[in-house]
Design a protein that fits this description.
The structure holds 2 protein chains of 2 kinds. By secondary structure, chain A is an all-alpha fold. Chain A has 2 helices and no strands. Classes of the chains: A mainly alpha, B mainly alpha. At the A-B interface, helix 1 and helix 2 of A face helix 1 and helix 2 of B.
Chain lengths: 60, 149
Amino acid sequence: MGNLDAALKILALANTLEPVVLKYILTLMEKAQGKTGDEFLSEADDIWAKVRANAQAELG
Amino acid sequence: MQKRKASSVVLALVLCLTLSAWQCNNGYQKAGQLAKDAAATALAAQESEIAIHNLHEISDEDHRAIQQKFLALADAGQRLDKAINVAHNGGDATAALNEALNATNDLVTNGLSGIKNPEKQAALKLALLAVQTTLNNLAIFANQVKGAK
């Protein structure tokens, strides 16, 4: 019974920590592969902004 | 012994959660990469069109019409980037993806007839088709990720 309590406590702790720990692990995994999804999207956004600025400059 | 078993179960659970979330997050990374590729290709296509216009191989009127379409594509692209971010947190990017595809299709179908030099017209078409292909790949990939969930 004591072991079950301990297991439940660990589960509860893992559940509490999970979002923070997961985010950290995921960021590390992404970093290991290069850029994160957010970084790629930020770069894409900057490029679209350049397309937009070019078009506006050409349209006067 | 039982304590060790319980710890192993907890570890396995955390590992499963991590892996499934990683798979999902890896999808987000891939989607972001495809979105960036589409934007970079669109920028290259736009710069080619500007160069063609500077060589006087396209009329000012046609050039303005094409740039208007690039402006629409840029707006659609930025909305798509936001939608991908929202989709990552449980939303849906289908409408934004379709909007970006429609803007690209409009450029391919209606934006190139004014270019007098056939070789330059073909080169620009190729670049725009690459944008279209990347967006289509993004749609296929998004469906695969949805199907896997």
